[in-house]
Amino acid sequence: QVQLVESGGGLVQAGGSLRLSCAASRSIFTINTLGWYRQAPGKQRELVAAFSSGGDTNYSDSVKGRFTISRDNAKNTVYLQMNSLKPEDTAVYYCHARVVSLLEHHYWGQGTQVTVSS
Predict the structure, then answer these.
(1) pLDDT one-digit tens code per residue, 59-80
(2) Which is it for the CA torsion 70, 7, 86, 51, positive or negative?
(3) What is the DSSP string of 32-78?
(4) Cβ pair 39, 61 in contact under 8 A
(5) Is 52 a residue whose pLDDT tops 90?
(6) Under DSSP, is residue 81 helix (H, G, I), strand (E, B) or coil?
(7) Which of 12, 14, 91, 112: disulfide with 6, CB 3.0–4.6 Å?
(8) Cα separations in angstroms, 113 against 55, 90, 91, 93
């Protein structure tokens, strides 16, 4: 089991910045994939950025160069620094963890709202 607790969402003007945090209930070394998804109204949930099990990072093309994913292993926390925000970044952002043991398990945080005004 993994519990994920997000924080850091809010309302910001276009061009502004926000940093999201996601605290995991267990060592992130035991999590195969850890990252962020988002879901805008009427749209499917999409990957924003994630760490793979090998430590590589993967970004959506729409956020490359503006968003940065990072982690603090000692705090079991992953961050999403979002710069140059655009109205189209408005969505609920979810922390996601994938753990592979005998089976593959997916865990989600409760979500945090990010609203970017024009």
Answers:
(1) 999 999 999 999 999 999 999 9
(2) positive
(3) SEEEEEEE-TTS--EEEEEE-TTS-EEE-TTTTTTEEEEEEGGGTEE
(4) no
(5) no
(6) strand
(7) 112
(8) 27, 8, 6, 6
